[in-house]
Amino acid sequence: DLTPPEALNQEFAEMHDELAIIGTPVYGGRLPAEMLSRFRRLKGNGTPTVIVVVYGNRAYEDALLELRDVALEAGFRPVAAGAFVGEHSFSGDLTPIASGRPDEEDLGKAREFGKRIHERIWNMQTFGEIHPLHVPGNFPYKEFRRLSGIAPICDDTLCSKCGGCASVCPTAAITAGDAMATDGSLCCLCCACVKFCPAGARSMEDSRIREVAERLAANCRDRKEPEIFL
User: Are 222 and 163 in contact (CB under 8 A)?
Assistant: First the structure.
């Protein structure tokens, strides 16, 4: 699991004779910068790999191509790829964006995807039969400008100081203590802390994020379906 911040200093065993499945969220049509620095610590050694991106029903743009390229750079051999839809990070009660996704229909397609991959791998005599995998996207990749200095806020009257928000933060932006302080310069706007908080004490109140959420909720209502590439 490359999500926790301690993954930056973790040693990973090299891979041999396995099938790797690499999944990552999409941020603005690109891979998260935090993911890239951690992923490059892995050594694929020719390991066949399934690459998957998950996006919030807007568009995954260049993310799948970028993930394929990064996987190749790390020594993996992509055999299949998928783009699946998950509830958007900014989704909320007033701005539902792909709420409840992935649902049973999505999961059924994921299982079918898995069966097709299994058949493909099982029928190979050698991994030398893996052909270059083509996926959508453009290079150079689209520029992604992340809003900085923004972070969820905590309602101290609701917060139980359980520390759960700090445990799920991938960038260690939250300091647990008498006040659950969040460093906006470290926050990557994944909103994992907001969705995790059992007391509902955390929320994203910044007007710029609200505007984005409202726009996405209004313009991204049509259901996008998973896309797979073999």
Answer: no
Can you spell out the DSSP letters for 97-148? SSTT-S-HHHHHHHHHHHHHHHHHHHT-SSGGGPPPPP-S--SSPPP-----
H-run or E-run covering 216: helix 207-219
Q: Find where tokens 């052909």 sit.
A: 131
DSSP 8-state code for residue 93: S
At residue 136 the predicted structure's pLDDT band, cuts being 50, 70 and 90, is very high
Report CA Rg, the chain.
19
pLDDT (tens digit per residue) in 156-207: 999 999 999 999 999 999 988 777 889 999 999 999 999 999 999 999 999 9
Please choose, from the candidates 227, 144, 224, 151, the residue with its C-alpha nearest in 3D space to the C-alpha of residue 193.
151
Phi, psi of 71 (to 5 degrees): -65, -45
C-alpha to C-alpha distance for 147 and 128, rounded to whole angstroms? 44
Residues 6+ apart with CB under 8 A from 91: 56, 97, 98, 99, 213, 217
Q: Could you tell me whether strands 181-182 and 20-25 are parallel, antiparallel, or unpaired per DSSP bridges?
A: unpaired
Task: Say how far apart CA 157 and CA 97 lie, in whole Å.
Answer: 28
The identity of residue 19, as a single letter, is: L
Enter the tokens of residue 219: 């313009």
Supply angle C-alpha 64, 165, 56, rounded to 5. Answer: 30
What is the pTM assigned to this prediction? 0.91
166 DSSP 8-state letter: H
**Residue that has been written with the tokens 């706007």 in this structure:** 189
Reported as a single tens digit per residue, the pLDDT across 42-94 is 889 889 999 999 999 999 999 999 999 999 999 999 999 999 999 999 999 99
